Amino acid sequence: MEVVFVLFIALVPICMGMFVRAILDTEGQNLADYYLCGILTLVVVSGFTQLAAILLNYSFTWYCSTLLVASLAMSVAGIVTSVALNRFSLKQQKKNYRDHVKAISRGGNVLGIMIIAFVFIGVLTRILLSSSILEGDFTLETINTCLSTDTIYKFNSLTGDFIENGMPIRQQILTLPILMGFFIKTFGLPATAFVLQAFPCFVAFLYFLALHRIGSFIYPDNTEKRLTFTGIFSFMILVGDISLKSPSFLLIYQGFTGYAFLACVILPYLFSACLRRKWGIAAVCIACEAFSVWTTYGVGFGVLVVVFFLIAMLLRKVIRNTPGRGKEQPGKV
Amino acid sequence: MYLAILLVTILYLYTIRHSGKDLLEYGIVSAGFVLFPVTNMLIVLLFQGFYGYDETMWLLPMLVIPAYAVAEIKEVIPNDARKRFLMPIICIIIFLCGWMSFDKDGQTYLCGIDNAMEYDEEFNEVYDIIIEDAGPAGAEGSRKIVMAAPRELMERARIYDGRIGLAYGRDLWEVDLDYAFYEPITEEARDIAEKMEEPLPAYTSGLIKNLLKVGATYLVFDKENLSYGEDMQYPAEFSSRKYKYSRFSETRHYVIYHLG
User: Fold this and answer.
1) What are the residue ranges spanned by the domains of chain B?
2) Is B190 on the interface with A (CB under 8 A)?
3) Tens digits of residue pLDDT in A26-41
4) Does a structural domain hold residue A329?
5) Contact (Cβ atoms closer than 8 angstroms) between residue A127 and residue A255
6) pTM tops 0.90, yes or no
């Protein structure tokens, strides 16, 4: 079943991403974008399915079946839409891949790729060898409660008692533990190993993917600069556990939490979406955040990032229009 | 220190009049909002105090702008010996500002503090004994598991198996978790939690009364907190007028009782 899970997690997000991007984004055919968008969409779909299960008093099994059907249906819709609208072209992807390989086949660039790969392996090693910190988090308890009672947030995760006094709705829509429970139940995965080791490694992979997207936008044609940017960024991820809440610390020691997913996947990808003015994708990121961490009724860090970007765009106009300042240096991006 | 690196690189990009794709402007705006106390306080208020100052740092492009600045600096440095040493020096600076610079309670985060994967094997043994005694879930005659035990066992129980119910949850001693559920923590639960960590008092009727009130069906005592009876054995039972907890198993460090 692990093989089926790997196939599911490798292919379904790409197809779901095709569907979403066919609606929201008419440009760009990068596989990394499809995948990241698909993962965030999967979280959003999971959130809405969970909300329906809670409001309609359905079981965890119902949620799992519905989410499976919904994700597969969206995947099929994504493939059909992309083929019908000619949005996804294997020929184009092969060409992109050939151009990519050609660009990095120069000696220095190959070394750069190797260094980044080495750093990525370093991050994975730190995740796998470091002990997870469970203080302040009850993801595993929530998953085990769902699996043993076949309900979603009807029983107190910390004690196992029936919840009589209710719980905050903003807590009930947090979908990452339930989504992990879906994978564990549907594909028969070992709960503790999946939550504490496999999922953080997956989040690290998504982090590097988002980082790659930022680098590709900033330096679309200059491979050497892109590799320098990516190398320094990834090295800062590897050694950047500077405080209890820094993204690197969360990734290595609490990669299974919503905070790690927010800081390492949602916010970087949202950042790249704002850089590229993809406001539809930004909306998906903001919706994903609402289902991943506690927000003020949907207003979270994602909204603030977008607001800061809008202010930054305004500031850039002002600086450009100021005499003697703001003229871009020739040859610079 | 990464914050210092961010501010230095923002200053560098500003002074070279570099305006790369909104990065510099976003850096200035986010740094202004996050680092200025009044706006930072407003951000914290927006989140109703749920997030603090540390979390607002997520808004800063703490890694993007320094990485971007390094890529730009590398182009400016002449292609000689200086360029060869540039990247190693930068990496050393990043390393010294990052890893091993954070201490919590005098311990650096080389390895984590808490290890959920390598439980003490004995904890698993206790949980397995209780689950086996309770019987298969849903079967006729199976017991509901509500355990009261020392804290180290209570912390791991529901991570090990969701079937194990607890007399009180981790939110009793982990204040960070008190937002999650509206269930109040009763005085009986607080009293039990305190008494499970100490040597058992001579008169246990108050403790037994509280345990029955919270519905505990399994008790686990640390052997260090129990004393032998006249028969050189740990107490065979703790009883009230109607119910009793009988000793039915023990491990190397713990004695386990179930409600009879």
Assistant:
1) 2-102, 121-259
2) no
3) 666 578 888 999 999 9
4) no
5) yes
6) no
